[in-house]
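Tutorial sheet, problem 5. The two components below are modelled jointly, 844 residues in total.
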Amino acid sequence: MDLNQLFRFDTFLVGASNRLAATAARTVAQTPGTAYNPLFIYSATGLGKTHLLMAIGQQAKQVAPTVVVEYLTLEEFVEAFHAAVAAGQSDAFRNRFGNVDILLIDDVQFLTHRREMQAELLRLIGQLQAADKQIVLSSDCPPAEIEGLDERLVSGFAGGLIVDMGRPDFETRLAILRRRSEERGAEFGPGVLEAVAAFEAANVRELVGTLNRLAAFQAVNEAPLTPESAAALLGWEGGEAPAVPAPPPPKPADEFSDFLSDVTSVLARQVEAWRRRVAEAIMRWEGEGYRTARLEALLNQSAPVSSEAALRQFERDVERLRELEAEMTGMDPTGGGHAAFRDPDRVADAEALVQRARDGLSPPPGPSALWTFEQYASGEANRVALSAARAVGEQPGRRYNPLVLVGPAGVGKTHLLHAIANLLAQAPGAVVACLSAQDFLDELVQAIERDRVDPWRARYRRVTALLLDDVHLLAGKERSQEELFHLFNHMAAAQRQLVFTANAAPRAVAGLDDRLVSRFDGGLVAELAPPDRDLRQALIRRHLAIRAGEPDGDLVDYLAARPADSARAVLGLVQRVLGAAEARGAIPTAALARELLEGAVPPAARASVSVRTSGLVASPVGIVKSREKFVWSWPNPADRLVEELS
Amino acid sequence: MSLVNFTTREITCKIVYYGPGRSGKTTNLQYIYGRVPEERRGRMVSLATQTDRTLFFDFLPLELGSISGFKTRFQLYTVPGQVYYNATRKLVLQGSDGVVFVVDSQARQLDENIESMQNLHANLLEQGLDIRTLPVILQYNKQDLPPELILTPAELDEALNFRAWPSLPADAINGHGVFETLKAASEAVLRKLSEERT
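Model answer (structure tokens):
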């Protein structure tokens, strides 16, 4: 087995409870075969035995790269031995282990009553010791407590060094927590880690698990944790630390296991190797739910057959089925259960199924390319929202999830939403869904009508980011909210970015489900205010520059001074001035604007019940609450402004 | 009975504990039963008379789980020892893959042992089983009794084991030698796996 690169000495935290073991391990790693041989480390589970064993291996390789290190668990050792014996290659087995410089065997407590293994290990240890090769063993109990262990092994172990590791003390626990939180890049408020460390975790794994929970909690909550809230979160209120589980009772002498292992080794010798391989493969694949008729047919052959090729082919087919099934469930969660995905003789059927699903699945609607951050004018009114939006675009799923942009109509929420989406879509492999809540709802209704809800869902579940405009439109739409809720959870769990816009803070929108509201509140709710003078100026300057070259300073100041409650209204002003100037064949000036705007009569069309928008007639109070949003389907938003104002 | 079934990937071994009355066959099975984890053993079926003598037979199925890809199960049977139940003995012997002959080591039981051994030979012959190839293990039980009452394994070998079968001393009531016997029997039976097919 390969050594885990993370298990090194410099990642092993030493405290009073494990100092002796760590020191002995270091010594052994630096001068294998000379100091303590064999080195026997024991401790309860989760305290770092495997870490130390692997650290010895890595350090020794650093000191002398040519050193042959073999790490394996006792189970693997036994398996290798049985396999070698069954194949009649016990010499190869002995050579394999006889030639290592450092042999690291984990979990030797499983030697219990395995006499033939004990004999083999005894022989191997003798051989390695004679050649000054290092042996390191780990166990969850001292050698004398390993049931049915050969006395010669016990005394052999005692001839080296037997060390134990205890549970980490407070300081070590704190150090572990500090290091792990550094590695994770998680920062905690003062006293939080101390509070966690104060509870006596049974082992390091439990401790790290606790830390992970806190880090996850803090990541989705902007407010930093306090020692009290951490304790409350972990359910330790009242100062009660989690109960340390009692050690399992020692196993009774086990004659039956002994008998079983005996039968196992006899059978391993008796059943021909190819039959055993095939039978074991059948067991394995059957256990995983695959049909094994092909292999069963093989097993019924009386003459020895070359099973290797057949087994490899079978494995390849299963692998392919797995890929297909994974793809299928990505597209249609109910499609994964098809029998074809479980029968390696039907790979072609499975391929066809997936192909059909692929054909029926179009990507979700994406952002409009027109709206980018470059074109977004910034000012005091939208500074916070803009910086949050950029942060989200650059580090999706990690900064603010979800990001909810709120503000009145026309302040640039949609623009900002699409700008984020465009930025997110640039990431390799990104599938960004950016659409209005109204479209989301319409699609769902259509999917329900056509009985295609699952594919519709699948279509959204595979996106890497979901940006939903005007989420307040879902108010009172129970089914849509339900779908959004599940989609939200799915996305948030996978750390995928969610962005919403709404005309008011989620909490203030009547008819939004509490569970959605609380989820929105769990991210960042950023407000966009109506444009202030600075922002209006920037908007006007930019727009004039695009349409009429270098803007006239007086005109900009004049227009910026006029009251406007939204960016859209500001642009409407500019548009009117430009239109009038064009009609007169003059250049747009402040004087022209003043004449136009202060002498003008408000257009009567604005007051009519219905508004013509690109040939569509929509009631402003009808299904589309925000008729401005029609602008999306238009290639150039400016066209619409002209139409509406003319 | 076929030992290996490749279609169902099962290995089934039927081992019959044979021997004179009161030699300790049921005791062997009971000891094994007590040591097998619950999920591995079937219900031990014992048809006994009111005085606890085996009337028909004992049956103890053992599920050993999957070994080398084969569902492996052992079926342990005892025969009634008393002379007059010979029909039952023949029935139980049918299709057995191996026999454990439990010998009562007491000197005064020697004749019964010999008689039972002859009965085994006769019954096997009748079943068409070849005594020369069928795995048989001798268990010299009750070796815990005072030495003046029993014969030593060497003496018993001399008297009973002219075919040089593997023999083991035992004290079934305390469990000594019970699993050793079972192991020896199962090894001998399983070894026949490869012989049968070649």
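Marking note: Chain A has 26 helices and twelve strands. Full credit if you identified this.
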